[in-house]
Amino acid sequence: MITAKRPALRRLWVIDRELRAGRHPTVKQLAEKAEVDEKTIHRDLKMMQIDFKAPVAFNWARRGWEYTEPTYHLPAVLITEGELVAMFLAGQALQVARGTPYADDLQRAIKKLSEFLPDEVSVHWQTLDQAQSFHQTVMTLHDVDIFRELAEAVLHRRQVKIRYWTASRDAETERVIDPWHLAAIDGTFYLIAYCHERKATRMFAPGRIREIVPTEESFEIPTGFRIGDFFDGAFKVISDSSLPTQTVRLKFAPSAAKYIREKVWHGTQKQQREADGSVVLELSLRSFVEVRRWILSWGSECEVLEPAELKADIRREAAAMLKQSDRTASHSPVAALGQIREQKKRRQGKKNRAG
Q1: Does any domain span residue 283?
Q2: Distances, alpha carbon 330 to alpha carbons 64, 127, 257, 342, 346, in Å
Q3: Which of 69, 85, 101, 161 could share a disulfide with 213, CB 3.0–4.6 Å?
Q4: Which of 171, 103, 166, 99 is nearest to 135 (CA)?
């Protein structure tokens, strides 16, 4: 998985948050929170004191850092709901721009903006270049309005009621959720939230939210929640923490190998070139739902080497597709005409023999 680096402004935002919470964190704890080394945190604290005149000091009694003036706020740039909506629309624009001369510039611009996002929002680019074609989708103002309400709820940790359409059941349900995190993956936003109806953490597609109503209730995100853990083992967005991580090995024919070698398909991938020009791609995944569809899209150019479970699954799916194709062919107008001609020949043959 390729994620944005931790820029100085974002590190300062993390430090400011921890100090204002009165937790008296140590340098080691701040380094873990900001995902950098301790030397970097020491430099950041010094910069806060000198450049921002921040009242930062080490409390020897509490053995941690603090603001000596509790009302102090670091003058950092924080994203607003409107700016997040702008990123949402930019992601849609990136989908439309695929294949155009402007796609790379737009992608770099969104990456730079993503570096300043707070912890409630993340942008993942591990399969951004995966699509080999693009199509334009139409968004209504209603979709944007719903996303704006959702963004506000995520950033301010407000519980909401939603009416949600579930594609697999083709049904709408009303739910109360705590929206924890918005993740933009390949230009599409996904919501990770606690669903009070299911009493579990679930992933929602904002585009399937038909109605959203804010409530007066607030919530706290569990301290053990990490967005990286939620997507761990996913080929794209679908994962299952109850399943073990398995090694997936795929062999691509020489005709497809040149396309496989030029892209990063997954953060765990390993590639091995074979003497015949083919390439073996190795991935570590928990869920096979998305990778199975991807494998099928390559047709006979992709062979599953392992695991046996996935290999058998692809074989069954291919057999079902062939059976469906044969059934469709037998009911086609051409096939029907051929059957009529064959019947006429048999009848004529019987008459000739009878004569």
Answers
A1: yes
A2: 77, 40, 36, 14, 19
A3: 161
A4: 99
Question: Tokens 């090694």 map to which residue?
Answer: 247
Tell me the C-alpha distance between 345 and 331, whole Å.
20
What is the value of pTM for the model shown?
A: 0.53
On whether residue 338 sits in a domain, the answer given is no
Q: Do 289 and 223 belong to one domain?
A: no
Residues 203 and 164 in one domain: yes
For residue 48 the two structure tokens come to 């806060």
Q: Which residues of 307-326 are buried (b: 16+ CB within 10 A; e: fewer)?
A: eeebbeebeeeeeeeeeeee
As beta bridge partners, residue 306 has 249
Cα 48 from Cα 14, distance rounded (Å): 12
- Give the three-state DSSP class for 236: coil
Per the CB < 8 A criterion, the answer to whether 19 and 66 are in contact is yes
DSSP single-letter state for residue 340: H
Over residues 211-254, the pLDDT tens digits come to: 999 998 999 988 888 877 788 888 888 877 788 999 999 999 99
Query: What's the domain range around 149?
Result: 81-230
DSSP element (H, E) containing 330 = helix 308-330
Number of domains comprising the chain: 3
184: helix, strand or coil: strand
How far out from the chain centre does Cα 124 lie?
6
> pLDDT digits over 105-161, tens only?
666 666 666 655 555 565 554 433 332 333 334 444 457 788 888 888 888 889 999
